[in-house]
Amino acid sequence: MGDSLNIRAVLRQHLETERLLGVQDVPLPSVPRVALGSAVAGRSSASPHPTATDTQSPAVGPRSSAGAAPLPETPHTMPVSPDELAARTAALKRLDDDQVSVCVKCHLCRTRTKTVFGQGHAAARVVFVGEAPGSEEDRQGLAFVGRAGQLLTQMIAAMGLRRDEVFICNVLKCRPPDNRTPADDEIAACSPYLFEQLRIIQPEVIVALGAPASQTLLNTKDSIGRLRGRFHDFHISGSPLVGPPTPLMPTFHPAYLLRSPNEKRKAWEDLMKVMELLGLPIPEKYR
Ligand code: URA
């Protein structure tokens, strides 16, 4: 009984991911059991700060199907030492505990239920940056757990990754009332927390979801339509003179994709460029 419920959940997840990618005809017999199992059974950590022991063995992929010879491994997270991972995890926790969770730098502190620091792997290869918490995120204190979050989970799964292998956060750590667009003064007060998160995690690539995240990180007013689809240079140091740039891919926000499903293909094309950069395998049918 439990098994058949599991299989149904697995199949539903697979079909939804296929639909996300614009695949209409789904050859069900080719569903790889292990890969699907991992997409559904993957822990979505309730804590924004999984411990180093939770996360210390770097996840690898592509995952081979049951019984098949292991495929060449592409790390899903950065293969840092356990000490380094523990240090990054602790630094993120300190930033949240000492600064974000008690922040009163702007008036949003008066209307928030919980701050939303973001959650995921402290040595993630890819960080997804959204705009600001919505009502569900404000209630739970976790990023992207509402409807847009479900679509983001599917997008991440389609890349062959799990939510706990990436890091997910927002420009604002508090919800703007009525989910309005973040104001300039709120972004100015809050974005240093985001820059510090990126400095600690040092991802190989950043995916900026929607205009506010892309414009904040790239310090531009260009529209998301103009920015998306190609890599931009992001300087974690804040200066092009210090250290190499981190590639940043702007793409459409999942909430926009829910309203405009015809744009999903473009978002998927952006994510395939990210997969290529990370060396993640792109199934032929999705190209
Ligand atoms: N939209 C965002 O930008 N972030 C969230 O966490 C949820 C919805």
How is this structure best described in words?
The protein is α/β, with parallel strands linked by helices and 287 residues long. It has one domain (46-65, 72-286): Uracil-DNA glycosylase-like domain (Uracil-DNA Glycosylase, subunit E), CATH 3.40.470. It has helices at 2-20, 33-41, 52-55, 82-100, 135-140, 147-158, 184-201, 211-218, 224-227, 254-259, 264-278; strands at 60-61, 74-75, 119-120, 126-130, 167-170, 205-209, 232-234, 246-251. Helix 1 packs across helix 6 (147-158) and helix 4 packs antiparallel against helix 7. The radius of gyration is 18 Å and the shape is globular. The model is unreliable at 23-46 and 52-66 (pLDDT under 50). Uracil binds next to helix 6.
Topology of this protein?
Blueprint: H1 2-20, H2 33-41, H3 52-55, E1 60-61, E2 74-75, H4 82-100, E3 119-120, E4 126-130, H5 135-140, H6 147-158, E5 167-170, H7 184-201, E6 205-209, H8 211-218, H9 224-227, E7 232-234, E8 246-251, H10 254-259, H11 264-278
Parallel strand pairs: 4-5, 4-6, 6-8
Antiparallel strand pairs: 1-2, 3-5, 7-8
Helix pairs in contact: 1-2, 1-6, 4-7
Residues 130-134, 137, 143-144, 146, 148-149, 170, 255 line the site of uracil (URA).
